[in-house]
Amino acid sequence: MIIQVQIIIQIRELNKLLTLYLEWVQSKYNSNEEEDEFMKSNNQKGITLVALVITIIVLLILAGITIAALSGENGILVRAREAKYASDISNAKELVILGINECITDYYADKYVSSTAGDETIQDYIMDNIQSTQASSVIASASAGTITTNVKDATGAKLTATIDTDGSITEWTGDTTTTE
What we know:
The protein is of the alpha+beta class. Among the domains are: 33 residues; 89 residues, no CATH class. The protein is rod-shaped.
């Protein structure tokens, strides 16, 4: 029986110690919880320096990618410039062809309908009358079988058409769309 009483006393002492330990842990937990709440309330008012630095780095990377996409060798600005040259050249070619066709139509109308064309060749008739057609907005000069436009290509050369004696275009020069 004495042994049982001693065991019970030791269990009570252990119980007291355990209770004291649990109270101490709980007090530490409550004090840390208050500190955590204090820190959380301060962190919620702004962003951390790390988040700010990461945001700036991401923005710099995006800016670098954007600048490269705009101004690189195959960038948007280069492709837009090449597209402008191609569009200008294509429009000028179309107007010159329309002007030549208009001159050919007028030549045959004058020669066979009104008999006023004389001995002039189609090429001479085109050279004399191309300035009065709808192509006049792009024609700079027309002489000796060559029609020169005021449209420049990517290298700065003027778009030029060479006309043979029957009024067909034999060659286009100055129609480069890239600066390479």
